[in-house]
Amino acid sequence: MSTVLPTTTAGGGAPSSVLASAVSKIKWRILPLFVVMFIANYIDRVNIGFVRSHLEADLGIGAAAFGFGAGIFFLAYALFEVPSNILQQRFGAKAWLTRIMATWGIVATGMAFVQGETSFYVMRFLLGVAEAGFFPGVVYYFTQWLPNAERGKAMAIFLSGSALASVVSGPLSGALLQIEGGGLHGWQWMFIIEGVASILLCFVVWFCLDSKPSDAKWLTDAERHELETVIAAEQKEREKSKPGHVSMFSLLRDSRIALFCFIYFAIQLTIYGATFWLPSIIKKMGHYTDFQIGMFNSIPWIISIAAMYMFASLAARFKRQQMWVAIALVIAATGMFMSTVGGPVFAFVAICFAGIGFKAASALFWPIPQAYLDARIAAAVIALINSLGNLGGFVAPATFGYLEQKTGSIQGGLYGLAAASLVAAALVFLTRGPKK
């Protein structure tokens, strides 16, 4: 992770080796911790996808209730994201990120003791409240610790946590589901062990994380001073062009920003549709144990990670970002549509193909709004796109659950995901052109 920065000191001149040393230490100490936190965060968010049949058998939670409960997390997350960020600025990153992790660990553990649909909804909503602010909180943390030139690289490393979590969550949850004893079922042990792991990790966060560079005793005095000087200078430059209050509705009056929100929403629809319902599709392929289902569940995500880096390389070499996003979305649409025309095994293979598209589209999307946005509103708009886009995590599972409850099939939902991806692929070309 070590790097030599082209950044100069506040007074200009040669690149600062002191700053480079400070950034290298930050990357080695903080980034691995954030990646591990993100893995734990993602697992506690999506592990219910592996226990759907168990919740139905033991608690009578049907497909519609399961889909609504899976999705209600994202409503709570969107509602409480901004208040959580405000509180982080008040209490400091160390205290607030530790609090976020501790409370989501407690709620995730409490999922083991739900008794029916109502308590299932309540606990999923509370999990969304508990996790709210984690992702944007980390993004804000980077602005306090890293110069502009290094934040993009740090974000790429941090986001790898969700990809790694997608791979490990299946085998891990599948193995834990086989635990029986103590009067508890395997699905209860899964929630308890994965939730307690997050609680224990919060102690590591408390002892390893510092709120500000000035608190970091592992940096030298010169490194702290250089880091704070450069970041303060960059902040002053941003403040020169900082506008007054910008409301969500004023941002959405820009048709290009509304397009960005829809495109990202369509991408997230497909990602979370696959995340929460893929284990159920795998279960129909044969008489597999929970661990085997978990192993199968990792395959599409492993493929998608490789595809994500392949597409990123192609987009970097052949500079047509919209075209590559559109190609990725067409691949996702094709895979989702093809998953409806054969048996469970063919559906699984088709979703593996779709994974090539929807994960690549997610990674390729962000440079498009970043290239369009005025620096004065970039942070606000990116937060808006992320919040509205993640509501796809509510719509997809809730819709799938309703359809299966009413029709006995999720085929209509898969058609919907394919259609949304195709529409987004067409609309992405409308994001070209000069800034308005």
From TrEMBL:
Subcellular compartments: Membrane
Domain Major facilitator superfamily (MFS) profile: 30-436
Any one Gene Ontology cellular component term annotated for this protein: membrane
Transmembrane residue ranges: 26-43, 63-84, 96-114, 120-142, 154-177, 189-209, 257-278, 298-316, 323-339, 345-366, 378-400, 412-430
Gene3D superfamilies referenced in this protein's UniProt entry, alphabetically: MFS general substrate transporter like domains
Keyword terms, alphabetized: Membrane, Transmembrane, Transmembrane helix, Transport
GO molecular-function term, one example from the UniProt record: transmembrane transporter activity
Membrane topology reported for the UniProt record: Multi-pass membrane protein
Superkingdom, natural source: Bacteria
PANTHER family associated with the record: PERMEASE-RELATED, TRANSPORTER, PUTATIVE (AFU_ORTHOLOGUE AFUA_6G08340)-RELATED
Name of the protein in question: Putative tartrate transporter
Natural source organism: Duganella phyllosphaerae
